């Protein structure tokens, strides 16, 4: 097994196993690392070479600390003028940092040490010899550390320790063997953009306080609408706090389009409204209906075929039933990439039905929208251009750091009319610039986080072709997994056929169950296999993959791949680890 820090070698090889016989790569990285100040360079070199294998030009080991927390400086100038000189965190508090008088030096030293912690964590996230998770039960963590808030401030030495402790027990979601959620990976440009966004610390409601970010949102949303297929990228949109809120926006706007009076008079002024979505759709559709006063009983679930796709004939049948009862169908939410199966509803057929009955068509492409970037796979969303609105989460398949979710609307101005409240202290009508760039009044929120910059900067760094390569690779890895296990002893597929997305759903059947003839007992015991294997994965810290039941199907593994750091070797490791952890069950 590789030594700690050897994951840095993985930048030069697919399997990430490292190549200590070729120190040139590490030396080159180390030379770059020396440009960092505050001891960061030395720490990165230590990670690259190990404490006993640092190159002569690395400048030696990390500057020592005294037990009091005083950091020795890293420069060779005497008298010393570097930020770390005479900085003793044990006697410093947040009030000693900027904007405190003479706070520049302790601030620089403190932030450089925070950066040390972050960079070491980033490097370890890609090191396959490190754990994905250092799992502890909640009561253990609560007892091991004092997490309570106090009246008196702690010193900066303790604050840095809190940063280290937090990351020690954090899940390494960028680890190549983390497959637990739809959002995985750690993009370096996206990370840098998030740091910049936090540093700027502004709000998205007006151009006057976020000029560049507002313009980038305009440019990026327009590009996304072009990719969807709306002529010239026309329409509207907004970045929201996740796909659930984007879906609720779609429901809100669809209701307003049909009954604009609901904005002032409420649900009492309109007939009973009915929304339709597939039985495999995301639970956020029902949550949105509950939040908007429409009610969960007014969300009709449409049957799916064996692959999890909505059946159009059942949709039309249920629409006619609702109309015969005097209710009003107002929204159909089709799914492009369901959460569990990764299924794509037949959007063209759904669009025809929505057009026939004059119903708003929404496409929840939170998970599958990224495939629009791929010439090889975008056909799976054929018909999305006919939707009235689309949810698309770049923080999922495109690997943008959380959170980054867009709601795109085909009709321009509708979102503004639906949500604006004309707050005069923010949206003055006599400003000296184009007021169309004051986008805050079309949002439900007042304060809105800057979510666009990381997507925009990654897009500039990768280009559309870079996202395409990322997505194609992840889908190829899913097919690789499917091809290995479809006929492998001990594995059963949840449905037939190769995956539509990167979702691969399967049961692992331990040897003791392979010859069991009692079907009911077999299913009962099989339902307990995935939870036990998952728990063992977490306790060993080797990998993470999700499981769940669905309908009459007992617990099965749902493998998803969205991390471009994953390789064929990581897929092989996952299979071997499932077998190792589950063979005795």
UniProtKB/TrEMBL annotation:
Its main location: cytoplasm. One of its GO terms (molecular function) is pyridoxal phosphate binding. Residues 1-24 are annotated as: Disordered. InterPro entries: PyrdxlP-dep_de-COase (IPR002129), PyrdxlP-dep_Trfase (IPR015424), PyrdxlP-dep_Trfase_major (IPR015421), Pyridoxal-P_BS (IPR021115). GO terms for cellular component: cytoplasmic vesicle; cytosol; Golgi membrane; presynaptic membrane. It is a peripheral membrane protein; Lipid-anchor. It is found in: Cytoplasm, Cytosol; Cytoplasmic vesicle; Golgi apparatus membrane; Presynaptic cell membrane. Catalyzes the production of GABA. This is Glutamate decarboxylase 2. The gene is GAD2.
């Amino acid at each position: 097994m590789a030594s700690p820090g050897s994951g840095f070698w993985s930048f030069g090889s697919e399997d990430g196993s490292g190549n200590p016989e070729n120190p040139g790569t590490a030396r080159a990285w180390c030379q770059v690392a020396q440009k960092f100040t505050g001891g960061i360079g030395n720490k990165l070199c230590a990670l690259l070479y190990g404490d006993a294998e640092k190159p002569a030009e690395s400048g030696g080991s990390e500057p020592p600390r005294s037990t009091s927390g005083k950091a020795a400086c890293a420069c060779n100038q005497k008298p010393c003028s570097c930020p770390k000189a005479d900085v003793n965190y044990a006697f410093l508090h947040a009030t000693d940092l900027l904007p405190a008088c003479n706070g520049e030096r302790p601030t620089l030293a403190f932030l450089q040490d925070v950066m040390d912690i972050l960079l070491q964590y980033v490097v370890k996230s890609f090191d396959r010899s490190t754990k994905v998770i250092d799992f502890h039960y909640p009561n253990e963590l609560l007892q091991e550390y004092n997490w309570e808030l106090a009246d008196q401030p702690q010193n900066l030495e303790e604050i840095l320790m809190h940063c280290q402790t937090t990351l020690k027990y954090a899940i390494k979601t960028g680890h190549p063997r983390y497959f637990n959620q739809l959002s995985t990976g750690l993009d370096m440009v996206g990370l840098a953009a998030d740091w910049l966004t936090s540093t700027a610390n502004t709000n998205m409601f007006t151009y006057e306080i976020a000029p560049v970010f507002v313009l980038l949102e305009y440019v990026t949303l327009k590009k996304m609408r072009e990719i969807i297929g709306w002529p010239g990228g026309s329409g509207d949109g907004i970045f929201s706090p996740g796909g659930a809120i984007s879906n609720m926006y779609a429901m809100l706007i669809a209701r307003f389009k049909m009954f604009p009076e609901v904005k002032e008079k409420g649900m009492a002024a309109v007939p009973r409204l009915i929304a339709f979505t597939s039985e495999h759709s995301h639970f956020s559709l029902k949550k949105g209906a509950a939040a908007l006063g429409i009610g969960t009983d007014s969300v009709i679930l449409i049957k799916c075929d064996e692959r999890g796709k909505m059946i159009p004939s059942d949709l039309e049948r249920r629409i006619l039933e609702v109309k015969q009862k005097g209710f009003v169908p107002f929204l159909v939410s089709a799914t492009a990439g369901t959460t569990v199966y990764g299924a794509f509803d037949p959007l063209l057929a759904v669009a025809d039905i929505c057009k026939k009955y004059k119903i708003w068509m929404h496409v929840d492409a939170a998970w599958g929208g990224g495939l629009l970037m791929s010439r090889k796979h975008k056909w799976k969303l054929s018909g999305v251009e006919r939707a009235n609105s689309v949810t698309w989460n770049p923080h999922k398949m495109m690997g943008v750091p959380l959170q980054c979710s867009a709601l795109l609307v085909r009709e321009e101005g509708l979102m503004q009319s639906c949500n604006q409240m004309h707050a005069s202290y923010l949206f003055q009508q006599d400003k000296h610039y184009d007021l169309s760039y004051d986008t805050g009044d079309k949002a439900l929120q007042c304060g809105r986080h800057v979510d666009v910059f990381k997507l925009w900067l990654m897009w500039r760094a990768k280009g559309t072709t870079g996202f395409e390569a990322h997505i194609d690779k992840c889908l190829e890895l899913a097919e690789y997994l499917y091809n290995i296990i479809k006929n492998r002893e001990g594995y059963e597929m949840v449905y037939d056929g190769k995956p539509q997305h990167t979702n691969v759903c399967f049961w692992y059947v331990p040897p003791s169950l392979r010859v069991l003839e009692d079907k009911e007992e077999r299913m009962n015991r099989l339902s307990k296999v995935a939870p036990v294997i998952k728990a063992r994965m977490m306790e060993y810290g080797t990998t993470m993959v999700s499981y769940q039941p669905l309908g009459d199907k007992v617990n099965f593994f749902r493998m998803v791949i969205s991390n471009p750091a994953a390789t064929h070797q990581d897929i092989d490791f996952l299979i071997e680890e499932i077998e190792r952890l589950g063979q005795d069950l």
